[in-house]
Structure formats: structure tokens, C-alpha cells
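Entry for the shared binder. Reason: the reviewer on the internal report wants the predicted structure included alongside the sequence.
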Amino acid sequence: MDIRDAGPDDHAAVASVVRDAFADDGSVASLVADLRAAGAIEVERVAVDGDVVIGHVALERGWVDAEEALVDVLVLSPLSVVSARQASGIGGRLIEAALDAAGERGEPYVFLEGSPDYYSRRGFEPAAPRGFLRPSERIPAPAFQVAVLDDRGVTGRLVYPDPFWRHDAVGLRGDVLAAVRERYGE
């Protein structure tokens, strides 16, 4: 298994991987396509087994609305591995590749919303204690995380690129939100 930059020839395979990984109707794959079309994706990597794409990760441009100025940051979303290969270390390798790419670019922070159990083992920590505010209250506080690559000492609210809002892909809703809040005591 290798990890490499994603290219235009990978877009259909990436959409298939994302649909399988999220077992959804294609809404997450549509989000990825719209992020690409908007020019929001800064880094995109795929995991390949031979010529077959089996995993994908993207980093989008976001901002921290700090008191002094907007600060460029990245948002990791989504992370996808085909269901047949999940829990085999591919996701961790994709995260590592994404964080390495962000570090090479001189990015200060990479944010995400996701399982603290999973991402805390991969360099992420709760963002709120560092003074960062969630872009939506529908993101449970423990799920709002940051990997600090070059701490610039800024604080403020994370701002997602517009396609996340158009797709209503910020935070959780309904029973899923209630279950996560109950699990983490929020």
C-alpha cells in the first residue's frame, strides 16, 4: 500500500471510496467534489493498493477569526477508507501523510471534527483549551480538535469554507448529536 497525491484521474475512484466508507447516499462524496470545484482543497492524498484507490484524505483551507486578523489554517475532512480495509492502519497513515504535508507547507494548525478516541492517538487534541471556538455548537466540544504544527498563539473561532455550510456538513443533528453528547457528557 502506498500513499500519493490525488489527481484528476482519481476523482471517480475517490468518490466511490468516500461513498463506501461513509455508507451514505453520496452526500459526502458530493461535498468533496464541491470543495474541489470551489478551490478549497489544499492537500489531497490517496492510499492505493496497486492501482486501486482504497483510501482518501483531504485538507481544506479554513480560517481562525482571531482578534487581530484572519489566520489561515487547514481542516481535515473527510478521511475515508473502504469498509473492507478499515481498522488496518490505512486511516492512520493517511492522517500522518496529511499532517506531514501541512507541516511542509508551514501551516500552523489542522482542525477536524471527529472521534477523540481515534484522533487523539494521531496528534490531535481538544481545541477549546487552546482558546479556539467551534464553528457550530452542533459540534460536540470533545470532537472539536486541533493538531498544532506551529503554535502562533492565536485564539478565535474556526471558520469553515463555504461548501461545508451549503452541504449542511458542519456538526451533527438530531439523534446522532444527542447520542454523541450523552456519550461524552456534554
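Summary line for the report: The mean pLDDT is 96.
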